[in-house]
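User: Structure please.
Assistant: Input sequence and predicted structure:
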Amino acid sequence: MTTVLISGLGLIGSSIARVIKQENSEIEIIGSDPDDESAQFLLDHHLIDDRQVFTNAVPLADFIILAGPVSVIIRQINELITLPLKPDVFVTDVGSTKEAIMDAAKPLISEGVNFVGGASNGWIGQIGKSIRKAGFV
């Protein structure tokens, strides 16, 4: 089973969860967000299957989508460098500041992690294509 971690369950993260579930309900989605109310709403509506702290969810994920504010995305990229990752994990983001995000991702990429900086314009289409291209749907 494919496991997707979505970190940041606001408008963009929850929309991505909805698209993934519409494409393939068998994909397990783990949500990570400091807002208990948002996470519980998504759990109650079966848009995510589980909620975990980011650092606990990362080792379980085949596909990681960073959907928080840019400052959080950069912090999480730095955390990913120190966490155990699945060998073929695919990481992307929906942040709007590509230069800062891609600079932060350089050490991750140099370690061989599949990181693709997402575009803030048309992010759902891009994420959907990335998931399909990686063979998750």
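The mean pLDDT is 89.
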